[in-house]
């Protein structure tokens, strides 16, 4: 979402014209910029903190020539996400529960692989039986809607 998208969302949310929403959004942004410039920090509870941070002068390299050069000290703006905002970002919205239809329990047939003849002087060992695949159904509607599979090695 860009600034125009924010303005559209504010206009829709406040049921006002886009020009009024533009004034509101620009006023808030200018206030935040001036607050960071004047006080060094703007904290919006539940959203986050905008803060001016100083960077030290350091040596870097010119990407074209690879020659060393000095990068001047500067001030940059950093944003630290607030606790409520971070929790909102980290939690996944639950998907609506699907209707669980009863499906019959089925056993998948297991066929032994055909033996291949190998020209060899060594005796051929007996093939080990393949594990039996059994499909079981979820017992409650609150459990997963997919069937579970288990392997019996009897």
The dominant shape is: flat
Report the radius of gyration as a whole number of Å: 32 Å
Number of helices: 3
Count of DSSP E strands?
7
Largest sheet geometry: 3 strands, antiparallel
Sheet-strand content, in percent, reads: 15-25%
- The CATH topology of the domain at 40-92: HU Protein, Chain A
Helix content: 25-40%
Q: What strand line-up does the widest sheet have?
A: 1-2-5
How far apart are the first and last residues' alpha carbons, in Å?
58 Å
Oligomer: single chain
Indicate the low-confidence ranges by residue numbers.
Answer: 139-145
Q: So what's the CATH class of the domain at 40-92?
A: Few Secondary Structures
Task: Indicate the CATH architecture of the domain at 40-92.
Answer: Irregular
CATH superfamily membership of the domain at 40-92, which one?
IHF-like DNA-binding proteins
Helix and strand run: HHEEEEEHEE
